[in-house]
Amino acid sequence: MNYEPISFALYNMLNDIPDPRKARGIRYKYSDLLFMAIHGILCGYCCGLDISYFVELNLDYFRKLLGIKCAPSHDTFSRIVRITDFDALSTVLKEWLCAHYPELYTLYNGKKVLHIDGKAVKAATAKSEGQNPVYMLNAMYEGGSISLYTKQIGDKENECGQIVDFLSKLDIQNTIVTIDAAGTTEPVLNYISDKGGHYLVPVKTNQKRLHAAIEAHVNKLEKSDKFNALDHASFESTAHGRTESVKTTMISNTAFIFEQLGLDSFFGTIARVGVMDKTVTQRKDGKDQTTFKRTYLITNLEEMSVENMQSIKLSHWNIEMQHWVLDVQLNEDRDTARKENAIKNNTILRRFCMNIKNRVEEYKKLSITRFNMTNMHSIEKLTEMLFKEPESNSQA
User: Fold this and answer.
1) pTM for the complete prediction?
2) Which of 10, 122, 219, 396 is most buried (CB neighbours < 10 A)?
């Protein structure tokens, strides 16, 4: 199957990404290099050395397709990843995904759920120079794939200060945002409310006054036997000798917060408080061992049911599962590329791979590893899937 490059919608869009190279000594078109790199990423090759060898193995194919004479070196691919404008790359890939595949998300009473979480890229840290791990902020709609948009935040301590800027790039209107305790701060929660969004976040000791007020009120309710009469929902799962039981209780009357703390900062927006009790029992050394953990949750959404509160909180784990896939199956945590834009661009390309896998019907049930293997052994089918314009577009 032999396509003319001009017919490839994504190929054309790659031409819109600015080429930062100096004209002297250029041997390959910028869009051709990005085109080949994306093929390599979708076949499971994430570093310049492997992508170069992948192109060499498929040189006849790329020669016919692009007119190249030899495979670009690994230094060339590594440099392309370093110098490419990550905002432009993210925008092009996102626009192509939106045009060709439906957006994936689960609705709760007509509202999307957006999970925000930070992830370390450990190998991209110069430990010998005393650097802390590099963290990337990621977003994922519940029921969908991890967002292409990401933000490098340097280290974990800077995460809370970067969340507002990260959220400003996302549409959070009529959306329930979940974040870990680093996001339970006045600037973050007030920004979400001001933009017409809703939050569901845990309260830990980083908010000492609020945590103490909720804990004291819950203790009071438990002593008076009123706690068990409140709305609650339960969940239990058993797998691999491990039983996890979760009970979430909803406190709808939040007047006690305002009475103790006033209406300053986000305290004035809290509409519901959740108490999530998790009990885990697992067998270890021939004995059952049980652990208990209590988490307090707050939300500004008055109509949130306790069932939805529990489900949304538990679903926040899905973005952490996406991080596991990135590390274990796409080797992100072992990526040593750290110069210029390398971390961000490699992050974008890996997430593009995950989005394609989840949005193409025949690949949804495959693991990322098998998706990569399928593409590796059927490169022409991969090209047709990625770069041939939809029939509806070609007929228009």
Assistant:
1) 0.83
2) 10
